Amino acid sequence: MSPRENNHRPAIDPLFRTASRTFKNRVIGVLLTGTLDDGTAGLKAVKMRGGIAVVQKPEDAMYPGMPRNAIENVENIDYILPLSEIPPILVELASRLVKSSKDSQDNSSNSSNKSDIAEFDLDELAEDDRPDKTSVFNCPDCGGPLWEIKRDGLLRYRCRIGHAYSMESL
User: Fold this and answer.
1) Rounded Cα–Cα distance for residues 14 and 85 (Å)
2) Residue 74 neighbours by CB under 8 Å, 6+ apart
3) In this predicted structure, what is the pLDDT of residue 56?
């Protein structure tokens, strides 16, 4: 079982990261009603690998936090729609032919750092060249120190165990 991210397991961010890493431009990330900001970093990964982002219109959401956060932090969201308009667009998108992409970003050594914002090799923490810096916070789940990871305008925290948090969820 994997560590929690944003106080949840399963969490949306790792789902979107895994899907985008595997299926690249053939992924459609859909973010609906919810609180805080789970899904924002994962939706960034979907967009960075050429996928499509669909976000529920915050005014239409029972809990507008997640959709609003994604709209504020993810560039080029493809569709911002009321819930009633999302199923038809998904049917349309799913019926489109999508060419396989070599995704040039995935071939660069820097791409996994950029698109997998909350993930890093935990062995790096033992090395002199650490991913970022130690924060002043401890992990709420295990009590260990949290590392600050700032990528693409998002600040995230991760401990040695692998628990991960956005600033809002921490």
Assistant:
1) 26
2) 40, 43, 44, 47, 53, 55
3) 98
The gap between the terminal CA atoms of the chain, to the nearest Å, is 21
Contact criterion met (CB below 8 Å) for 54 and 31: yes
pLDDT tens string 105-118: 444 444 444 445 44
User: What does the block give as tokens for 168?
Assistant: 């809002």
Residues 6 or more apart whose CB falls under 8 angstroms from that of 162 comprise 2, 3, 122
Q: The pTM is what?
A: 0.76
Residue 114's Cβ-side half-sphere holds a number of Cα atoms within 13 Å equal to 12
**What is the secondary structure of 50-115 as a DSSP string?**
T-EEEEE-GGG-SS-HHHHHHHHHSTT-SEEE-GGGHHHHHHHHHTS-------HHHHSTTHHHHH
Question: In the structure encoding, which two tokens stand for residue 111, read together?
Answer: 């791409």
